[in-house]
Amino acid sequence: MCGIVAYVGERTAYPILIKGLQRLEYRGYDSAGIALLNGSTHVYKCKGKVRDLEELSKDQDISGSVGMGHTRWATHGAPNDLNAHPHRSMNGKFFVVHNGIIENYAHLRKELNNRGYRFESETDTEVLANLIENIYLEQAVSAELAVRLALTRVVGAYGLVISCEDEPGQLIAARKGSPLVIGVGENEYFLASDATPIVEYTDQVLYLKDEEVAVIRRDQLDLKNLHNDSKTPDIQKINLSIDHIDKGDYAHFMLKEIHEQAVTIRDTFRGRIAMDESKVFLGGVLDVMPQLIKAKRIIIVACGTSWHAGLVGEYLLEQYARIPVEVEYASEFRYRDPILDRDDLVIAISQSGETADTLAAVRKVRETGATILGICNVAGSSLSRETDAGVYTHAGIEIGVASTKAFTSQITVLTMLALLLGSKRQVLSSDTYRELIHELIQVPDKIEEILRSEKAIAEIAAVYQGATNALYMGRGLLFPVALEGALKLKEISYIHAEGYPAAEMKHGPIALIDEQMPVVALAANDQSYEKMVSNIQEVKARKGKVVAVVSKGDKAIRKMADHVIEIPDCHEAVSPLLAVIPLQILSYHIAVMRGCDVDQPRNLAKSVTVE
């Protein structure tokens, strides 16, 4: 949930840390801080964003070629200067930055209180800093051993970078459940929560695995586990460039990522659909194909936007692969006692591959022997390592906190999976199989057509920028899109919005309809069209304002709706990929007009790596 960056080498650390924190700020932006090691340790930290930290550190001593930084999303303790990272142990021996959550911190804090330790902050991280120091001083061991011994007592998740005043020129990194990557340079090392701060300096990286500890100096990296077993670093080359993490000419990352979707969807199916449009190939599932074909039931686990993608997948998999599907919130599934057996297939969806609840659900499933398939966007993520097989979405890095291109890439993967399983199970005719593949291949061009309507959608946004509530409704495959559209509006504009199956409106929500209530109706030309016409009439009869997303050339709804947004005509199977685009654009422009921070909405962070 938080962002970590650190450096050991020959360069001045400060500019590397600040630039790295700016690139990681989408992971959390309640407060920020840095520690610079140069003989003694200088710490600068404050409530607010990285720009506030830059102002604070202006005219300060920022020398030193070793340092660490942190941008925070608050868990334990309010966003303020004292709770900002890095945290210092009571006697000043250790400095720590931390992404994750120490679940048994209260017990450890009480124990340390009894040993004479006092605390400045409300955080669980300061407890860890003092626990390490207490072991270091009482047992007279090295900093590395003190860290490893302390972590054996910790319950929870962590990505950590730690320094010791008595061992200058050295950083210690550790990971369990929260991502940490090490960039390998020439006599220098870069550490970060993801590769975005590293790509400018090196394309050689090491992804720390759970319960691994790295001891790093400018010319040396030692890797071991908590039990002191040496590990061989698995250094990989990353395919990421500066262009991928730059806004270019766009005002916000979110807008850039909306406009990238024609490209990212092509990237998702590139190499996976035969050129003659007659076959889907997903290499990541070959090893478990027999289990997929014979699966008696599919359970999809996910959170947030990925859960909405899972709902789309439910419709597609049931209709085209003829397998019963259940979609579960991972945050609830992990605490239930679900009935699973070896013939079940569990699909876990996570953009980052580090979503804490989704990973916990996967670990719960593992005990049952069911086959687990992961769908994620990040190579080397925890999800990719903890599932039996998987499919990468290839959406590229997504920096805007409100997910856009990750959602459509996930749906693209689920569409291909439904078609593949339908074909392998011989429940999908060859003609329908080829038709749907052809429809999927046409989606990027149709998205580019929708994007050319951005100005007209922005004009509609201007009408509703002052709204305090909104309703979204759809049927069939477009019901999950209604949920996603409502979520986007909530996330970035702070307008209360809810999505409903259109038929459910008269079971309660219709009571909210008046002349001030905008209702976004998803009414593409599909089997539910006539029903949607009736639902829109019900809203208009109560003086509601209707923004309708319709297929190109629609006439009936155009006569009823206050505003109409057209999408190209398409097969209903791919309609979610098109219908969501205008909803993303609408939410974006409403948020901008309201003066909201689109890329960094309040109280949110990109990757939810803590419960």
Description of the structure:
This protein has 611 residues and is of the alpha/beta class. The protein has 3 domains: 3-240, 4-Layer Sandwich (Glutamine Phosphoribosylpyrophosphate, subunit 1, domain 1); 247-450, Glucose-6-phosphate isomerase like protein, domain 1 (Rossmann fold), CATH 3.40.50.10490; 453-600, Rossmann fold, CATH 3.40.50. It has 19 helices and 24 strands. The strands form 4 sheets. The chain has an 8-stranded antiparallel beta sheet with strand order 3-2-4-1-10-9-11-14, with helices on one face. Helix 7 packs parallel to helix 13 (405-424).
Question: What's a concise summary of this model?
Answer:
The chain is 36% helix and 23% strand. With 611 residues, the protein is α/β, with parallel strands linked by helices.
What is the mean predicted local confidence, pLDDT?
A: 92
CATH hierarchy, class of the largest domain: Alpha Beta
Radius of gyration: 25 Å
How many domains comprise the coordinates? 3
Helix content estimate: 25-40%
The end-to-end span amounts to: 10 Å
The quaternary organization reads as single chain
Structural class: alpha/beta
> What would CATH call the homologous superfamily of the largest domain?
Aminohydrolase, N-terminal nucleophile (Ntn) domain
Proper CATH architecture of the largest domain = 4-Layer Sandwich
Q: Helical segment tally?
A: 19
What is the strand tally?
24
Cross-sheet strand order for the largest sheet: 3-2-4-1-10-9-11-14
Coarse morphology: globular
CATH-defined topology of the largest domain? Glutamine Phosphoribosylpyrophosphate, subunit 1, domain 1
